[in-house]
Amino acid sequence: MKLVPVILAGGSGTRLWPLSRAMYPKQFIDLAGDNSMLQETCMRLEGIDSADPIVICNEQHRFFVAQQLAEIGVTAKIILEPVGRNTAPAIALAAHQLDDQDLLLVMAADHVIQDRQAFQASVAAAAGLAAQDHLATFGIVPDSANTGYGYIKAGKAVASGFQVEAFVEKPSRETAESYMEQGGYYWNSGMFMFKAGSFLSELEKFRPDIASACAASVKDIQEDLDFLRVNEEVFKSCPSDSIDYAVMEKTDRAVMVPLDANWSDIGSWQALWEIGEQDDEGNVLNGEIISFDTTGSYVHSPERLVATLGLQDVVIIDTKDAVLVARKDSVQDIKKVVEHLKDKDIGYHEFHREVYRPWGKFDSIDQGNRYQVKRITVNPGAKLSVQMHHHRAEHWVVVSGTAEVTKDGETYLLAENESTYLPIGCVHALKNPGHIPLELIEIQTGNYLGEDDIVRFEDVYGRVAPK
User: Fold this and answer.
1) What whole-number distance in Å separates Cα of residue 338 and Cα of residue 332?
2) How far apart are CA 375 and CA 127, in angstroms?
3) Residue 420 to residue 396: CA distance in whole angstroms
4) What is the pLDDT, as a whole number, of residue 23?
């Protein structure tokens, strides 16, 4: 029997727009520390006797996961979901990679837990219950009548936890206040621990359709670089459901372990303000901020100076291409903004101006009629795909580092302040052969400058469809 952390990293984080977006959601951002939330999730396992983690993520985020784990020296199995099917199928995919007696510690990649010692003590308590074939969940000891969380009602004491008497949906303010007065109610954390076999048997009992689809999708699981790919067509047929609805609310094996560790799911800018370091006026200020007569506010602007005057209880989030200004008590409605952007197909919900790629990143710093200017960063040793464009020409100017350019079969080096021209239709590639990041300016000209005007012939990151 071994303990295996299972980290769910497939969320979109829309409630923290404009910083969190579909293609770069909150779990990959350093919102509450020096590391990303995914990295912090892995690091809080230090000191626990556990095996390498399993991380579940979607196709679009796979390189973020691999790179961020490598940065902190964590080796993991990374299972790719072809489509999102909620938490019950995701956990089943992980359980099928383990022996029936192995313990799964299921965590979200986008939670904050500030008291690591208390967290690890609760994990140890849950492990003892899970070893006895219970399905354990972690109930957060509430410090307020919060209406944003579901609740767990504790029943009879069992060892270091409680039987689960009931799962309760997000309550009204009045109901939440009554829970605080009564006691015995905990916030539902969405974290779990159980044996792989125990979970799969309960899933088979209550949702055999999900159980059979997941079992079939991993029969011919394929290794691809750092990733494990399940059968896409089979998994797409799997129904979508949460572990709460599919199993935990139905099973008679459910127990709850209290967790009092300064936990937050960072579900809103209000939540970040609550856990942030507040100044004497109750403000949390990130970046170069000048604040006069401003109280109880959260201001985030890492790139530009922001000045505030006469404000109270507001949120200001400044990114390179979008600014959010809202009252703190309105930030739960950010989803309305995101839905509007989706409906109008504006694009700000999906990408930042700065876009990450497996080889590095690019920042679209200027664009106009028939031209676009990008600042491109290529990581040491990384290489862009061998490609061509039907509608645009490119001019590359090296700012720092060394560029290895391949152009229609000819390979040559460019140093700082040197440049090259790539006409429409030429087959080309770019590599950083050095030990420092390669920075260059790319000027694109042509009648169509979309990212889909790329014909890839060869790619070390597997982005070329097999012939």
Assistant:
1) 12
2) 49
3) 5
4) 87
Which residue stretches of the chain have pLDDT < 50? 466-467
For residue 29, give the amino acid letter: I
Pick from 333, 293, 301: nearest CA to 319: 301
| CA angle at 233 for the pair 6 and 227, rounded to the nearest 5° | 40
pLDDT in tens, 442-463: 999 999 998 889 999 988 887 6
Q: Which helix (H) or strand (E) holds 434?
A: none
pLDDT of residue 467: 42
The total number of residues shown for the chain amounts to 467
Q: Which two tokens stand for residue 114?
A: 């500030």
Distance from first CA to last CA of the chain, Å, rounded?
43
Please report which helix (H) or strand (E) contains residue 152, including its range.
strand 151-158
pLDDT of amino acid 464:
58
> Locate tokens 């009204």: which residue?
172
Helix (H, G, I), strand (E, B) or coil at 248: helix
Tokens representing residue 23 in the block = 């293609």
- Return the DSSP state at 279: -
> Can you spell out the DSSP letters for 235-262?
HHTSPP--HIIIIITT-S-EEEEEE-S-
Q: What is the pLDDT of residues 211-223, one digit of tens each?
A: 999 999 999 899 8
Structural contact between residues 135 and 205, judged by C-beta atoms closer than 8 angstroms = no
Does a cis peptide bond (omega within 30 degrees of 0) precede residue 239? no
Q: What is the pLDDT of residue 305?
A: 97
Q: Which residues of 241-267 are buried (b: 16+ CB within 10 A; e: fewer)?
A: bbbbebbbeebebbbbbbbbbebbbbb
When computed from its CA atoms, the radius of gyration of the chain, rounded to whole angstroms, is 24
The predicted pLDDT at position 346 comes to 83
- The backbone torsions φ and ψ at residue 122, rounded to the nearest 5 degrees and listed phi first, read -70, -35
DSSP letter assigned to residue 77: E
SS3 58: strand
**Phi, psi for 315 (deg, rounded to 5):** -120, 130
β-partners of residue 456 are: 387
Nearest to 91 by CA among 209, 208, 9: 9
Report helix, strand and coil shares of the chain as percent, to nearest 5. 25, 35, 40
Helix (H) or strand (E) holding 229: strand 227-229
pLDDT at 351: 85
Q: How many CA atoms lie within 13 A of 81 on its CB side?
A: 26
CA 396, CA 442: separation in Å to the nearest integer?
A: 5
Measured torsion, CA atoms of residues 305, 311, 317, 319, in degrees rounded to the nearest 10 = -30
Rounded Cα gap, residues 425 and 355, in angstroms: 24
